[in-house]
User: Fold this.
Amino acid sequence: MGWIGERLSRRRLLFGSAVAGAGTALVSLATLRGAAQTAPAPVAGPLCTAGPHIGHGNMITVGDVDSKRNGFDPAAILTDWERGEVSSLPDGRTLRTFEVVAEDKEIEIAPGILFPAWTFNGRVPGPTLRATEGERLRLVFKNRGSHVHTMHFHGIHSARMDGIPGAGEVLPGGEFVYEFDARPFGCHLYHCHSLPLKRHIHKGMYGAFIVDPDPARHPEHAAVARSRLLGTPENKEWQEFVMVMNGFDTDFDKKNEIYAVNTVAHHFSKHPIRVDRRRPVRIYLVNALEFDPINSLHLHANFFDYYDHGTTLTPTLRTVDTIMQCQAQRGILEFSYHAHETGLYMFHAHQSEFAELGWMGMFDVVEATA
Ligand SMILES: [Cu+2]
Assistant:
């Protein structure tokens, strides 16, 4: 199949499924948001862009995914830090213990489109594990799924703790305890590393793993480190969000039909992320996409500083509005709308096809959030 043919086929699948699966039609975002309430509802075919050509007229799915049934909400995932249980080791160091359970679960990734996922703690992406540099981490991993799984962390650890076949792989019904120090600080990820690897990852077995810098270890940039350290007054000034870019191959042809941030296609187009105009924004961006080698984030009407992998306290890129990430690449974006007027500001993958198939969202910049 040629390049154009593939694209037509992928779009037909999403649009066809949305219509057949949920009895819905596709309308423009402007209509959905009520900006064109007087206009007739557009009749959309698989590739039709009919409808009022006003406002943010983007083709998106109609209706909403049932977050309660899913057991997770893409918006809640933005700020849902899993901190584990904290205790002290005999030498006085902090021990942070997390429990993660693998289980099979059918999830809804677009209205009416179900996907047979393999999950960590029943959600995709898995829990955002957040620790502080230098702590001892203990990950109690239980496999209640139907396949063998692992937790492989992007971080520094011993071979025995690598979470690959032969080192921490867990049979269904089994359990393994991974233990290592939280380092280096940064924006990382974990994922299953069982074989076939791309299938295990793509089924939903990944999550963000954030290690906050310890300000005492970075006297030259202590203020920046404090602003990253969850719980400090400096950190509270920031509006922090985790965005895990992912996709789903719903017909198992090794191509994605759905793209998203935090799993649900177009979620943040329908439910813009409220942002206080006066406070800075920090995004922990992780690319967990399989099958496509590159993903990206483009921010409209603004520019950001970028910290590749989050492992530095000074930006690795300054004043950019688009960042690309290869598979498993991640980083921290920092920006502000303090000099902007309030309103809706878009962000999306700049691979236009990804955006149209779900990887698109909005910030709702307001004067103040509660
Ligand atoms: Cu797995």
